[in-house]
Write a structure and sequence with these properties.
Strand content: 15-25%
CATH class: Alpha Beta
Structural class: alpha/beta
Shape: globular
Helix content: 40-55%
Number of domains: 1
Distance between the termini: 72 Å
Number of helices: 7
CATH superfamily: HUPs
């Protein structure tokens, strides 16, 4: 039996969490990463994702095995400072499986940035693994703006270590934090 247009609209407006519970109609996405440090490329993805979702949660992963420059607490603090005032964007640290974090946040989607072919294999493998673990949580890939296509946190750390110009790559609070962290 075919549904009327109003029935379809009504059904779409009731957004469900990955566990099947209603989320109050909110479309929620998690944008995970180590953000060591958060770059203008990351911020570009956040700004574009918030146009598609009611709430975007920047999930700062602990990732101590990567030996980050900034501590987990520093990365969470910096991310909060950078997104302060952005409607629909929050920041939260997590130290569990990404899909578990997404479930805890009642997210329907995981946002991932994909810069180039070099990112594809890893991101594709992770998306399929996450789908296996949490079939109701979709992975959505964003391609960054052309001006940030080449940008990576590791490039920023290297530039900062050599005293290079940073303001065209990271937000001002991150520039200041990098200068303090790497002051000799």
């Amino acid at each position: 039996m075919r549904k009327t247009k109003s029935e379809v609209r009504s059904q779409r407006s009731e957004v469900r969490s990955p566990e099947g519970g209603a989320t109050g109609g909110q479309r929620i996405a998690v944008y995970p990463g180590s953000f060591d440090p958060l770059t203008l490329g990351h911020l570009d993805v956040v700004k574009r994702a918030v146009h598609l979702f009611d709430k975007v949660i920047v999930g700062v992963a602990s990732r101590q095995e990567k030996h980050p420059l900034f501590s987990w607490q520093e990365r969470v603090r910096l991310a909060k400072e950078v997104v302060k005032g952005m409607d629909g964007v929050t920041v939260q640290g997590f130290d569990c499986l990404l899909v578990e974090f997404a479930r805890q946040q009642h997210a329907q989607a995981i946002i991932r940035g994909m810069r180039a072919v070099m990112d594809f294999d890893y991101e594709f493998q992770m998306a399929l693994t996450n789908r296996k673990l949490a079939p109701t949580v979709e992975t959505i890939f964003f391609v960054p703006s052309e001006r940030y296509f080449y940008l990576s946190s590791s490039l920023v750390r290297e530039l900062a270590a050599k005293g290079g110009e940073l303001s065209c790559f990271v937000p001002d609070p991150v520039v200041k934090a990098l200068r303090r962290k790497l002051a000799r």
